[in-house]
Amino acid sequence: MNDSNDDHETISLIKKLPLFPLKSILFPQGALALKVFEPRYLDMLTQCEKAGNGFGICLIRHGSEVGTAPEIYTVGTLVEITFWERRKDGLLGISVQGEQKFKVLNHVVQANELILADVELISHESEEILPEQYQSMVSVLKKIFAALQHPYITLPKKYDDASWVGSRLSELLPLPIQKQQLLLELNEPMSRLAMLYDEMLSLGLLSE
């Protein structure tokens, strides 16, 4: 008999997944804090909580995080809500954790401008030992984490995993957002690390 994890792995298509378009990127196993105030997303979160489901985060290609539904990139990340907080300013604060990447197959925009999408899940990247040549990148990542607060401090650290290290650097380095999206769309951890290494050299974060 398969356990629940095996059953989860067989799911390749999710229909009518609500999307939260943002001008930021989240990878699987990453964390993100959000402030929510628009009625469409407050309603979405209420329904997600009742159903015990997550939602999807996609980068905005054209448009805004508020108002009319924007044009989105088609590769995003399925997320799980890990923390809720009713803030003093009246906004809803949540933290989410990335679960799995997906590709949007098609989508519709509801009357309230909430995007619902049929998505195909992208297979998890395999864990690979971080090559010795990229160990200097880990030192930079540790310094970044030392300056972060919730929800990043709650993340399990996997500094020897090439996919995890590349994903966190892709999220946290000051890179152009289109470059971050390109890194998200890559499914090869070593290719991502090679690109990041060059970017970090250009930023002066590493020396050859």
Identify the overall geometry: globular
Query: What is the residue-averaged pLDDT?
Result: 92
Number of strands: 7
SSE string, helix = H, strand = E?
A: HEEHEEEEEHHHH
Poorly predicted regions are 1-9
The largest sheet is: 5 strands, mixed, barrel
Layout of helices and strands, plus pairs?
Elements: H1 4-10, E1 13-22, E2 31-36, H2 39-51, E3 55-62, E4 71-72, E5 75-86, E6 92-109, E7 115-121, H3 135-146, H4 162-172, H5 177-185, H6 189-202
Parallel strand pairs: 1-3
Antiparallel strand pairs: 1-7, 2-6, 3-4, 3-5, 5-6, 6-7
Helix pairs in contact: 3-4, 4-6
How does this model look, in words?
It is a single chain. With 208 residues, the protein is of the alpha+beta class. A 5-stranded mixed beta barrel has the order 1-3-5-6-7. It starts with a helix and ends in a 6-residue tail after the last helix. Helices cover 32% and strands 30% of the residues. The longest helix is centred in the last third of the chain and has 14 residues, at 189-202. The protein is globular. Strand 3 and strand 4 (71-72) form a beta hairpin. It has 2 domains: 4-121, LON domain-like (Archaeosine Trna-guanine Transglycosylase, Chain: A, domain 4), CATH 2.30.130; 132-202, BPP1347 like domain (LON domain-like fold, Orthogonal Bundle). Mean pLDDT is 92; it is low at 1-9. It contains 6 helices and 7 strands, in the order H-E-E-H-E-E-E-E-E-H-H-H-H.
